[in-house]
Amino acid sequence: MRGVTLLELNEVTIPYKTGEPIRICGLGDIHWGNIAVDEQALDRAVKFICDNHVYVVGMGDMIDSINPDDKRFDIKTVRPDFRANLDNLISEQYESLCEKLSQIPAEQWIGIHTGNHEEVIRTRYYRDVTRDLCRNLKTTYLGYEAWTRIRFERGSINKHVEVFKLFSTHGSGGARFDPTKQWKMEHLTNKINADLIMMGHVHSIQVGRGLKGDITSSGELKELNKTYGWMLTGTFLNKSTEGVISYAERFNLPPSKTGIATFQIFPEERRIHVSC
Questions:
Q1: What is the pLDDT of residues 136-155, one digit of tens each?
Q2: Is residue 133 part of a domain?
Q3: What is the spatial distance between Cα 148 and Cα 193, in angstroms, rounded to a whole number?
Q4: Any idea what the CATH number is for the domain that residue 184 is in?
Q5: Is residue 2 domain-resident?
Q6: Would you tell me how many other CB atoms lie within 10 Å of the CB of residue 34?
């Protein structure tokens, strides 16, 4: 969807212990309510997040958000248990997903982005389901893209703080192949000076790290290499379901791996590992 992109600014404090990694993941492009959602993969992701105290950024397109009067609507793509309530479809999807995601403790949410699917509901039907989701899960609304200043704070005795800058966005565009999807991330890393960069929308899990050269601003003059980590945050929407013609099939898109990717951050060493 084309429209105005609003930038949100956010700050969170995350406690840590020396030598123990902090994990952060992106959870998005769920498209809850679509028949092709991989619910088992979503349940595994939620369990992993809860069991391993992973901090979470909701990446948008959390629900499928396609009303019956939308030209994209196809009743066969609606999960069967939602078909009896087409006159209240968005609320049914929202409430069902909210119940599932409420398993994640509120303190582990960094915030939630809106996506292009939710934005259609906001601009055409005057309901901001992403703000509703944030309110119910007690977390921060991140708009379409956001900067988050993360303060990693160690203990009350010998207190130490390390600051990492996170840039996250739902993303945009119709890249179909892995190299062109990665090019979108390369474009972001070239223009964004962040330690951590996350993007959704393209229904692909890709991860990487890079280095940017710098020198010290004061004191001893020496060269610095700054590590940054990036991820395309994936999806929970399978390409196809037997008996249903999906969007991905109509455009001959490749299958997508469902699930999440995770940053592992060692704040004091400023080490970033990325896994999926």
A1: 999 999 999 999 999 999 98
A2: yes
A3: 12
A4: 3.60.21.10
A5: no
A6: 25
